[in-house]
Amino acid sequence: MSIETYDPATPDDLGWSQPDIDAIVVPPLSHPASAEPARVFDHAAMVEHVFDHCARHDLPLVWCVSDQMFEAGGDEPIKECLIPEPIDSGLRRLVKTGSMIRARKAKHIILRVGPLFGIEGEDAWLPNIIDTLLAQKTISAPQDVVVGPTSVEALSMALTGILLQINYGATHWGAYHLAGIEPVTPFAFSSMVRTQLDTLLSGQGLERPLGDVRALSHHHDQPMRRVLNCQRLLETYGVHQRPWRVELERLLKHWCEQAQAGEVNL
């Protein structure tokens, strides 16, 4: 099975004329709610361009979308059938793109994902937290926003399972959700990173003074919950949510092993 991941920085042809491509995956735009509007609009236009190509050539499109689309969150886990209704103009532009894709009824999966984290990459979340802590600086993170973090590797595994089933004839198109088990605030997540990093470094004889984590409050009336209901993905493609705590511990252990081997700077 041949899968093409579309990067808007690559040349326009992208080898799309190759007959052995079975699907095209568009990664999520990181932090669309705080991104420059022009960047968000460009991303939406790019997705529409890719989708037009997929529709013409009967190729499945998998578009990963940030959970920030649900700007106001919800009291209950957000179901897949719910269409976001954000106020932000950039987020509304992304919703418009999603509505167009659904209306065309072509082969597509819109995969809404929780905040992504990994140990590599510009927007991988963990590198920024680790670097800030090692620099003995303070991390400020909301304590009244509840989300479901998702590891990049968990997303990759889920996509692999979905695409393999599509390759073998699955035709269950539409919107799906993927997020980590056990909703958490960014403050609690960052605090957990600090605790585990301190424990792991000490256990390897690499003690370092670390910065602190400070709680911020943006929603003074009640916490804003942006928790995704992932039941449809489980029932349709058999993809389970992966516990973010387990994923986080594994990634931090790997990072500390690299630090002990001198492969990353402390």
UniProtKB/TrEMBL annotation:
Pfam families given for it? RmlD_sub_bind
- RmlD-like substrate binding domain ranges (all copies): 45-254
Q: Which domain of life does the protein's organism represent?
A: Bacteria
Q: Which Gene3D superfamilies match?
A: NAD(P)-binding Rossmann-like Domain, UDP-galactose 4-epimerase, domain 1
SUPFAM superfamilies named in the record: NAD(P)-binding Rossmann-fold domains
Write down what this protein is called. Answer: Sugar nucleotide-binding protein
Taxonomic lineage is:
Bacteria, Pseudomonadati, Pseudomonadota, Gammaproteobacteria, Oceanospirillales
